[in-house]
Amino acid sequence: MSRIRTLLVSFAACATLAASAGTTNALASHGQVTYFEAANTLLNPSTRPHVISQLEHLGVRALRVELYWHEVAPAANSASKPSFEGANPASYNWGQYPAVLAEAKRLGWPVLLTVTGQAPRWATSNGKAPYITRPDDKDYEEFATAVGREFASEVSVYSIWNEPNESVFLMPQWTSKGTPASGRIYRGLYQAGYAGLRAAGIAHPRVLFGETAPIGYDKVNIRREGARALKHPVAPLAFMREALCLNAKYRKSSSCSELQMSGYAHHAYTLPAGPSYVPPERDNVTIGSLSRLSSALNRAAQAHAIPSGVPIYLTEFGVQSHPNKYLGVSAQKQVEYDAICERIAYDNPRVAAFSQYLLKDDPLGGPEPGASFQTGLEYVNGTPKPLYSAWPIPLTVTKERHGVSLWGHVRPTTGATKVTILVRARHSKRWRTLRTVHTNGAGYWSFSSSTPGEYWRVRWTSPEHVKYEGPAIKAY
Hints:
The chain is built from 12 helices and 15 strands. It has helices at 6-14, 40-43, 48-58, 69-72, 97-107, 137-151, 182-199, 222-225, 236-243, 290-302, 331-346, 386-390; strands at 33-37, 63-68, 111-116, 157-160, 207-212, 263-266, 312-314, 351-357, 395-400, 403-409, 418-424, 431-438, 444-449, 455-461, 467-469. Helix 7 crosses helix 9 (236-243). Strands 1-8-7-6-5-4-3-2 form an 8-stranded parallel sheet. A 4-stranded antiparallel sheet has the order 12-11-14-15, with no helix packed on it. The longest helix has 18 residues, at 182-199. By secondary structure, the chain is of the alpha/beta class. Helix content is 25%, strand content 18%. A hairpin with a 2-residue loop joins strand 9 (395-400) and strand 10 (403-409). The protein folds into 2 domains: 6-391, TIM Barrel (Alpha-Beta Barrel); 394-476, Immunoglobulin-like.
């Protein structure tokens, strides 16, 4: 579960509204997997059947599941490691995870399993809560072996740790000199996790590296800020360089070998300023500055730190809405921004996966500003937001010199289909059909129009005669 900390909040306070990123009219030459993370609602057996039904209606085709080591490990709160076979799946209490993954397999939904902390207390270097300080590589390798043996037939892609550049997930983030430390710790965990999956009998495991949060610092001043400085996140590109043994000029240390990976996972959250917001700090990466990550990966490959052409997986994403007063936008803008962000990802040939984090909003509150997420398709009480009807059939309308460019996706379809786009003129209350278009085999479509309008929307009827209609949106 992502927690973009107070740094994002401070940026949001000073950010101004930005226009959406420009996009091309032609469909990109690739498709992208869209992962959905429904968090605890899927792991709760009382809510799972209803949630599965909702996800099927929404057109979900793949899941991201976070597997928390501490939740399933034996004697997780003990300071002393119990006697057990760490690589044996029978040593762990897997809880509801097998049921969720089995249901995904039944539905034919690929699963991205992020194997993450907290760690058991006995596997940390200091034994102090919240049990995230220097998790033991050997213990994690054995756990990864058990995970691989238990779930290999139900997991398509694995990912190592969640937001390891955040102090709520991994410590320490910094050295006593104020330089990044978490990258090297993560490198050890990644290598251990990869080795553990191979020891489980998976000859060529598909494993994602990174899972980085979008915002952080390149260095901190411990003398000025004291212990507070140690809680700051590390900027994702600074973290990546440290984890790959690269200096600021992307020159690799001779002591480090090339890491094998199937992709780089990143959480490209943006701010209320909009999808095209570009952080001034060049080591931070939001959805509007994905080219920074592409460039960094290219330079890392040139340094032989990673294979060439590593794809980007945006494994956690969502647009915050009100009532989040720090990072939220209106429910209407959430609809529009979310679709624009998806199109930015789709138009980037490097991006292999997009994602939606949360079906239902977190409750407001938490230990600090930004500690709960309102990125859901439903409010915390279960009332649908406009995004609930928009997410299955996202639509973007981009202003052009002589009209607009429209792009969309019919997510629930299983092949090419027909979709109707409607337009409403300024000062009119009447909707009229702009065009009925054919999608490609993955459900995507696009065209340009010179017909003036103030609002646009999408209608689609499934082969089972289920009717979908998105909310009205405006052009950007």
